[in-house]
Write a structure and sequence with these properties.
Blueprint (H helix, E strand, L loop, with lengths): L31 H4 L10 H15 L9 H21 L2 H11 L13 H20 L3 H29 L9 H32 L1
């Protein structure tokens, strides 16, 4: 991180100076880690990240610059947007993994849609169970099936998340084959997340129809 061009103090973020309060011109799109003054890593302390968000938000919030000139107000609005965009990425385990895989030269989501081979047979079973629960309607059997399926998927998600973490901790080298495996694990996690959301929606439908 460089020094503030106004006062020379070390910068904790490219958005603003914590010493003199100057808003800085940000060129391009800084990395989410750079915005928070962090080195890229998969493991992020959620509590520390939240505290850093509040600290930096006080430096760049547009309300603090409401009476400033147009240029300064524009900088504050852009800085605030960049800060919250970075937080959304870093605070979400899947979004953070997606950013890291892409930044390290791994395949993007649209370039590799595979999931781990061992995962595919379970996917077929889970999809079948979900279809059966939908077909049965708001019966006790359907609710029990959904409960069991949600439990299985939650456990599978926890295990897949641990596998993803092991792929990205420490971070693989640029362009490493490990990034392809990490993308496959991330694809599996996104499937699990979508399916759990479908189960919850189906539960709500069943509850409303009783």
């Amino acid at each position: 991180m460089s020094d503030c061009p106004r006062c020379g103090a070390p910068l904790a973020t490219p958005l603003a100076c914590g010493a003199c309060g100057a808003l800085l011109e940000v060129e391009g799109a800084p990395s989410p880690f750079g915005v928070f003054g962090l080195e890229p890593t998969y493991d992020v302390d959620a509590g520390a990240l939240r505290r850093k968000l509040l600290e930096l938000a006080r430096l760049v919030h547009p309300d603090y610059f409401a009476t400033a000139g147009e240029t300064t107000r524009g900088r504050a609005e852009r800085a605030s947007a960049l800060l919250h965009q970075a937080f959304e990425i870093l605070s979400d385990e899947l979004a953070r993994a997606d950013w890291l895989i892409t930044a390290l030269g791994g395949p993007r989501e649209g370039e590799l849609r595979d999931m781990p081979q061992a995962f595919l047979l379970e996917v077929l079973e889970w999809n079948e169970a979900l279809v059966e629960a939908r077909t049965e309607g708001a019966t006790d059997a359907a609710r029990a099936r959904l409960q069991a399926l949600a439990s299985d998927l939650t456990s599978a998600r926890r295990e897949a998340l641990q596998r993803l973490r092991s792929r990205l901790s420490p971070l693989p080298a640029l362009g490493s084959d490990a990034l392809r495996e990490a993308r496959r694990e991330l694809n599996a996690l996104r499937y699990l997340q979508r399916t759990l959301e479908q189960i919850e929606a189906l539960r709500l439908e069943q509850a409303a129809s009783r």
